[in-house]
Specification:
Helix content is 23%, strand content 27%. By secondary structure, it is α/β, with parallel strands linked by helices.
Length: 332
């Protein structure tokens, strides 16, 4: 692993980073999704006096979700923004300090660990919980933004329930796309799997599963040009490759459009110190939130390439806070 040069606040980087002040805290939490807020709730109750920085998207990915029906404790469902506000209020009730700010640089070379926020403030902390999440990859269409929460989703497990008996499309050709398509096939009338190439990248087992599912139709060598609909997604405009030069415009009627082309964990500023997998998910010791750096913990989607659910993120946030409390207790 590359060695990251420790922060020198008077170094050549000062032209970019104008450090105005430094603050020492006992427990720092970075990120404000279910993992971050749950960490803050547990850390506050353990009297760790946590300071949580929200990041650019306060509340995380769930703030872009309209209805959440699969989180325990909400029998009538709840919107993503409302749930995140509830968690924030609960964390503040126990004394967590919630601040808006974006982590721009990290130094884990020595305790207290240092994080620079907004290029101008250093927070020193004895323990750090990283809950910065992961960002779903999109195609970059304007209509994806237009129909966000109105037919466009990056999580079949989260939103598939709303499309029971309807027609949907899944974009992608890897294991994730194959898994999402077969999951949705159990709920939906028809599932189109839109594949850019003429082969699937998914494992042989997943390819066989897709092939043996009668209500999945694979659209080989298709790419999405646009989505259309008056009050949400009603269809997709595709372009089909028919040869080296020939192309055909195809329209399909669908009620839901699912992206399954991967996620990017928000871990870049930590990679010089923390072990990650090939994609960038932070590695933790199995059964814990502990990273390879003592006193630095990871929770939620930034360390979870498999499940990426609000409830699993919240659970890992609880684990991280308990791990941090025990770590800090041992430092006394």
């Amino acid at each position: 692993m590359d060695t990251f040069k420790p922060l020198n606040l008077q170094s050549e980087n000062k032209s970019k980073e104008v450090i105005t002040n430094t603050e020492k805290v006992r427990c720092l939490i970075i990120g404000s999704g279910p993992a971050g807020y749950t960490s803050a709730i547990y850390a506050s109750r353990a009297n760790l006096k946590p300071v949580l920085y929200t990041g650019l998207q306060m509340g995380g990915q769930l703030t872009t979700t309209t209805e959440v029906d699969n989180f325990p404790g909400y029998p009538k469902g709840i919107t993503g923004p409302e749930m995140m506000e509830d968690l924030k209020i609960q964390a503040e009730r126990f004394g967590a300090e919630i601040r808006f700010g974006i982590a721009t640089r990290a130094d884990f070379s020595d305790r207290p660990y240092k994080i620079i926020f907004d290029d101008n403030k250093v927070i020193e902390a004895d323990a750090i919980i990283i809950a910065t999440g992961a960002t779903a990859k999109y195609l970059g269409l304007e209509s994806e933004t237009k129909y966000a929460g109105m037919g466009v989703s990056a999580c079949a497990t989260c939103d598939g329930f709303f499309y029971r008996g309807k027609d949907v499309a899944v974009v992608g050709g890897g294991d994730t796309a194959a898994e999402e398509a077969t999951y949705l096939a159990g709920l939906c009338r028809k599932v189109y799997l839109i594949v850019r190439r003429d082969v699937l990248r998914a494992s042989k087992a997943m390819q066989d599963k897709v092939a043996s599912t009668p209500n999945i139709e694979i659209l080989w060598e298709h790419q999405t040009l646009d989505l259309f609909g008056d009050n949400g997604v009603e269809g997709a405009t595709l372009i089909k490759k028919k040869g080296s030069q020939e192309e055909e415009i195809v329209k399909i009627k669908i009620d839901g459009f699912f992206l399954a082309i991967g996620h990017s964990p928000n871990s870049d500023i930590f990679k010089n110190y923390l072990e990650t997998d090939e994609v960038g998910y932070i590695k933790t010791i199995p059964g814990t939130s502990k990273t390879n750096v003592p006193g630095v913990f990871a929770a939620g989607d930034v360390q979870d390439p498999h499940y990426r659910q609000a409830i699993t993120a919240a659970g890992s946030g609880c684990i991280a806070a308990i791990d941090a409390e025990r770590y800090l207790s041992d430092l006394r």
